[in-house]
């Protein structure tokens, strides 16, 4: 009951001071918005249970190629390895796998052929990841082992292509030219973002074709209750050692691994999320200082009112309770407003990094985020009123009554406290601004990197040439030749070619090689990136040939096997020697060699966020694989997006059932490759901008309040002949001095923060001096202007009126 009275009175007091209430509410809302938005991402990364049953027991199983120990270079298993794991690894309750890729979907009456993200999965994949049936059923282990032609649809595909018609069960659909029977539809929500797929067919580990064609099976294992990852890893190491002994030519030098599912999905993002959490924490401290200044000034202004209430019998606790009630009301309103704003902000934030599908799919405002938002609002408000409440509850209230001043200032001590708060928030704002400038500078440097090719007017897509439609290499070769002929004859097309690259951010193919007369120190093959390209690809990309020649019509299957290497590749293995004519063997134990006939310029064709790689190119027409996609690259004379219809038409003139998937312009691809950089740069820059705004408001408020408190002093100075300019300078300097002190402290802190940031995110780099100095100068200018503008009120003081002030 007493609390309700305090809350009612607090609402009335807030209504009487709407400007102050609005300022405090705005500050709390901004902070809660920033913290909640970043915490939503952190919640997905570190806290929120993965949306799968027994997620804490899930492991990602993978292989590491020789000389590539980092998880970002992890390789999926093959169907044969998956089968051996399922037979021999007993420390895992279940092992399931998925091969994913675009597949051509056609059928009577369902419209044109389209490329659908699809998966070949083991039968237990659905239940392992919590899939529930909407209609029909999933296939059984026996059906999967027999490689039966069955299909399960996602809810989204079922709705979009079949109008959610339940009679679709039992109908036939053509997938990559093969008729499959639709046996089930999954319930809404089962579209695992970590392996995008909307259509599933059986993965048979016993099918010889699958063993050779499906080379990338992403594999997951489930620990039994009470099982440990360490025990599973030890057994996997033993099983893999047996596999290496059985097939040393293929697996010698490779190693096996198993990683927690959360770490596998989000481990690479951890340092960036930690950085953003630190940034919003700093913003929260700035807000505390800002609000403390506002509240302290308000409390001191109303000190006589508090003294009167005390004289009438109000206890110190009663006086403090009124301020606490106001803080809680503002915290509740600011927390609610901040959470609503964050629900709008999070999708916009994640849109900055379109390649991060997993976080985008799972980042929602849940109870953890809501609890964090309200907790932050309460902590910020209660911390901000701590000093003012101590002032209320402290001694000296009777003296305020005796003074009878409505403008009691609390004396020089209170002014020093407010100046210290301005210094602190200025220093923190400078740290945020300089860190933001450091990250933005890194983004700017990355965006200006030369990709090694000309991305303008180039569009890329993927063709999947399935083994059943194109069983022989000559079939694939003839199809690609005819498509390229049609494309080059299409209006607006300048050049066209194919590559193994899919232009998917951070996805690339590697191969093992041995260099003739250049054995590796440990005797293991080298790992390099690999591209299988057609004539015309280098020309379409504008990748220069710096030595030798490009591939042309002579490089056929019946001609000597040739290769092109990147400049970095040539420098790594042959130094200053002429690489032309050198011999390279592909594979772990291959006896087939290719001869280097050309050296191409270095490229960053898997994203600007990665260094230029050592690349081996071989001709598409000297060997292709149905398991690998055919990346189509087309250079156009005009807008590449406008040429999509003509490109599809050219493909359909060769095969009306062949869809084009993954269409992206290379400018879009390069922009997406910097999505993670852009995300963290924009977030921390926004925190810095808000910090600057709050620091500026704090400087203005302290200076303006100082003018009000010292009105009588100003009047005396003016009455005694003091100049307006001197009075203005005295008031402005008081505020600017706090900003200058904050700038000095901020520069020192920024240098330390910059070193920590470079250690946390090596790609950001060092060089904090220039950003810190530039941001300090900006803060000094903005803070000085705020103090100068606020001090102008002192110039207009009427000495006679001021002398009557008490």
Salient structural properties:
806 residues; six-stranded mixed barrel; alpha+beta; six-stranded mixed beta barrel; 28 helices
Task: List strands and helices in order, with pairings.
Elements: H1 2-16, H2 18-47, E1 58-64, H3 79-88, E2 94-106, E3 114-121, H4 125-128, E4 133-136, H5 141-145, E5 150-153, H6 155-162, E6 172-175, E7 178-186, E8 199-202, H7 208-213, E9 218-222, H8 229-246, H9 248-251, E10 255-260, H10 261-266, H11 270-301, H12 303-311, H13 316-350, H14 357-362, H15 367-384, H16 386-393, H17 397-403, H18 411-447, E11 458-463, H19 473-489, E12 493-499, E13 510-515, E14 526-533, H20 537-541, E15 545-548, E16 562-566, H21 567-574, E17 583-586, E18 593-600, E19 615-619, E20 630-636, H22 644-654, E21 661-665, H23 666-673, H24 675-709, H25 711-719, H26 724-760, H27 769-795, H28 799-803
Parallel strand pairs: 3-8, 5-7, 14-19, 16-18
Antiparallel strand pairs: 1-9, 1-10, 2-3, 2-6, 2-9, 4-7, 5-8, 6-7, 11-20, 11-21, 12-20, 13-14, 13-17, 15-18, 16-19, 17-18
Helix pairs in contact: 1-13, 2-11, 2-13, 2-15, 2-24, 3-8, 11-15, 11-16, 11-18, 11-24, 12-17, 13-15, 13-16, 18-24, 18-26, 18-27, 19-22, 24-26, 24-27, 26-27
């Amino acid at each position: 009951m007493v609390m309700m009275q305090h809350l009612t009175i607090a609402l009335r007091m807030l209504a009487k001071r709407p400007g102050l209430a609005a300022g405090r509410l705005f500050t709390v809302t901004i902070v809660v918005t920033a913290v909640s938005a970043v915490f939503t991402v952190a919640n997905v990364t570190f806290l929120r249970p993965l949306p799968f049953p027994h997620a804490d027991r899930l492991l990602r199983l993978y292989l590491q190629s020789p000389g590539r120990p980092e998880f970002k270079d992890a390789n999926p298993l093959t169907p044969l390895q998956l089968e051996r794991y399922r037979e021999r690894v007993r420390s895992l309750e279940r092992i399931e796998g998925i091969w994913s890729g675009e597949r051509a979907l056609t059928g009577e009456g369902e419209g044109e052929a389209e490329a659908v993200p699809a998966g070949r999965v083991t039968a237990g994949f659905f239940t392992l990841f919590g899939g529930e049936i909407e209609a029909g059923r999933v296939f059984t282990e026996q059906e999967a082992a027999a490689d039966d032609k069955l299909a399960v649809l996602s809810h989204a595909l079922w709705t979009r292509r079949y109008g959610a018609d339940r009679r679709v069960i039992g109908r036939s659909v053509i997938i990559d030219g093969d008729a499959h029977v639709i046996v089930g539809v999954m319930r809404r929500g089962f579209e695992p973002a970590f392996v995008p797929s909307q259509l599933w067919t059986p993965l048979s580990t016993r099918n010889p074709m699958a063993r050779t064609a499906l080379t990338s099976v992403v594999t997951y294992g489930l620990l039994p209750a009470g099982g440990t990852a360490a025990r599973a890893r030890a057994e996997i190491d033993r099983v893999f050692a047996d596999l290496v002994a059985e097939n040393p030519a293929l697996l010698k030098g490779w190693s096996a691994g198993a990683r927690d599912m959360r770490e596998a999905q989000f481990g690479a993002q951890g340092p960036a999320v930690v950085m953003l959490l630190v940034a919003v924490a700093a913003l929260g401290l700035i807000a505390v200082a800002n609000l403390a200044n506002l509240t302290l000034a308000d409390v001191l202004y109303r000190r006589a009112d508090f003294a009167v209430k005390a004289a009438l019998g109000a206890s110190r606790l009663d006086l403090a309770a009124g301020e606490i009630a106001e803080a809680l009301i503002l915290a509740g309103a600011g927390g609610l407003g901040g959470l609503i704003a964050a629900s709008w902000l999070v999708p916009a934030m994640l849109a900055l990094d379109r390649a991060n599908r997993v976080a985008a799919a799972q980042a929602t405002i849940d109870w953890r985020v809501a609890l964090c938002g309200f907790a932050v609002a309460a902590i910020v408000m209660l911390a901000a009123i701590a000093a003012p409440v101590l002032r209320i509850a402290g001694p000296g209230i009777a003296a305020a009554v005796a003074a009878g001043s409505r403008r009691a200032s609390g004396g020089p001590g209170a002014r020093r406290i407010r100046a210290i708060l301005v210094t602190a928030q200025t220093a923190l704002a400078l740290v945020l601004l300089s860190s933001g400038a450091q990250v933005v500078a890194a983004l700017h440097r990355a965006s200006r990197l030369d990709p090694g090719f000309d991305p303008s007017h180039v569009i890329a897509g993927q063709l999947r040439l399935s083994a059943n439609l194109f069983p022989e290499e000559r079939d694939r070769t003839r199809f690609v030749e005819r498509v390229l002929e049609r494309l080059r004859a299409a209006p607006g097309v300048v050049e066209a070619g194919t590559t193994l690259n899919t232009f998917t951010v951070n996805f690339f193919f590697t191969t093992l090689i041995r260099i003739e007369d250049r054995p590796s120190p440990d005797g293991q093959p080298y790992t390099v990136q690999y591209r299988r390209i057609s004539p015309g690809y280098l020309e379409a990309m504008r990748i220069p040939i710096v030595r030798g020649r490009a591939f042309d019509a002579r490089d056929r299957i019946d001609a000597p096997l040739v290769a092109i290497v990147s400049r970095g590749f040539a420098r790594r293995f042959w130094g200053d020697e002429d690489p032309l004519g050198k011999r390279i063997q592909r594979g772990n134990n291959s006896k087939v060699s290719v001869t280097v006939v050309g050296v191409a310029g270095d490229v960053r064709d898997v994203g600007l966020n990665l260094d230029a790689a050592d690349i081996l190119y071989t001709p598409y027409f000297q060997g292709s694989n149905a398991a690998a996609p055919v990346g189509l690259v087309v250079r156009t004379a005009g807008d590449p997006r406008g040429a999509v219809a003509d490109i599809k038409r050219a493909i359909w003139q060769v095969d009306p059932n062949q869809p084009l998937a993954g269409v992206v312009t290379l400018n879009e691809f390069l922009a997406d490759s910097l999505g993670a950089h852009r995300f963290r740069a924009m977030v921390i820059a926004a925190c810095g901008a808000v910090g600057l705004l709050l620091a500026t408001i704090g400087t203005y408020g302290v200076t303006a309040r100082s003018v009000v408190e010292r009105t009588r002093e100003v009047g005396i100075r003016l009455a005694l002949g003091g100049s307006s300019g001197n009075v203005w300078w005295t008031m402005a300097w008081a505020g600017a001095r706090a900003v200058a002190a904050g700038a000095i402290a901020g520069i020192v802190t920024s240098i330390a923060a910059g070193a920590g940031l470079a250690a946390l995110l090596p790609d950001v780099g060092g060089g904090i001096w220039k950003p810190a100095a530039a941001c300090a100068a900006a803060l000094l200018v903005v803070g000085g202007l705020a103090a100068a503008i606020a001090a102008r009120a002192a110039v207009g003081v009427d000495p006679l009126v001021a002398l009557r002030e008490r």
